[in-house]
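Supplementary Note 3. Input sequence used for the single-chain structure prediction.
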Amino acid sequence: MKRFGKSTQGVTLLEIMLVLAIAAMVIVMSVRYYQSASSSQQANAVLQQIQGITAAADSLAQASGSYVTANLSKTTIAPLVPGGLTSGFITPWGTDITITVQNASSYQVDLGQAPSGVCPLVVSKLVTNNHYTVTPATAAGCNPDSSTALSYTYIANP
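The predicted structure, written as discrete structure tokens, is reproduced below.
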């Protein structure tokens, strides 16, 4: 009996390279997805903190007549915020939240250096509400390569 061809055993270099390329693509995509999900989670958490601070500050201002007389400090706002923000007014990315009263009808909140993936998400949500003046003014103002200083001014009657 005659053999027409040599039988092949094992895998070729081309097959190994193809499997490695597919594995690398799967790993890269899963890392990107994780980073995106983490940024969204941090943005949602800080937006909830902002809503809590706003509600607490408005409640204190209504009781005292203005933001100036309301004593908008961390110790007076923390008990009124859902969840308490008892962790010392810390953002999800680990920077301190500071509140500065500007006048009788507005105050400024500094959120520190927001990560590059979080900044545009937070800014895009806040600029839709005319009570907030955000720095940076647009999501495009966020630095895509590093963190960006993020703050907003809340105006009671814009």
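The radius of gyration is 26 Å. The chain has a mean pLDDT of 84.
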